[in-house]
Structures are given as C-alpha cells and as structure tokens.
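Problem 12. The chain below contains 159 residues. Write out its predicted structure in token notation.
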Amino acid sequence: MTLAGVGDAEVRTATPGDAPELLVLQLACWVTEARANATLDVPPLGEDLDDVLAWLADWTTLVVRSGSRLVGAVRGRLDGDVWHVGRLMVAPDLRGRGLGRWLLERIESAAPPDARRLSLFTGAASTDNLRMYKKAGYRFEREQPEDTGVVRLGKPLRR
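Solution.
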C-alpha cells in the first residue's frame, strides 16, 4: 500500500520481534511529548524492552513499515465496552503527512464487535495531538485523570 508522504508501506500486527524498534520509536516520540508538556514524567519514557514485550502481549498493536524501517504504530485494547487507543506513534521526520490519522482510523476499525466507545489519553499541552483527535471526533471526557498533565478523550464508536 502507498501512504501519502511515506511511500510504499506495510501495515501488520506487531510481533515480539518488533519490540526493540517499537521501544526506539516510542522513546523518539515521547521526547517530543515530554517537551510539549514540560515534564519528563511521561510513562513511555520510563519503559524498557521488557515493558514493551509485556504490553505487546496485552494490546492489539499495529505497526507500519516503510522498507525495512518501522515508521509508525498504535495499539488498542478492550475493557468492558470501551476500546482504549494508545501509543499512537509516528517517526518524528514523517509527522504532518497524515500517517497518525490513518493509524488512528485503522485501530478504531480493529475494535471488536462488543466495543461501543473509544477512549484515549494525551498530554494536556500536546496541541498537535489534541487538534488531530478533535478532527477525528474525540471530545474531552467528563471524568479526567487526577494528573492534571494528562487529558482523556473519547467518542462513541460508529460502525
């Protein structure tokens, strides 16, 4: 498949073999988040390879490869009737080309039939993320996490 600004790309479910590259991509992406939110207290920055392998076992994770390079990823997991979306990552040099929005659509469509709602977290000062999620129909949830640096967004799942 060809993605705008990315070229030929392969999208597939992540495997444990992707974990080392996922860790590197995660660190690259969350440094930007840490800077935008003026804190290094960002959970993905504290994870190691074992942590990534552990969440790979619990989450449906999609990865995008362009050639041999892992350039994007996103994960989803069902809790009750809520499909939680997380770790939406796009290589920093490829941001702004629509890959993040495309990945968001893919993980939303991967929600199992009993999912009724979509939910995700992002940094309260992550303006680019907030803009993208708003365009995708996400709105602030009534109940917010106690950590004021993080916001929860959600929307009904429409099929």
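Discussion. The longest strand covers residues 69-79. Students who got a different answer should revisit the alignment rule from Section 12.3.
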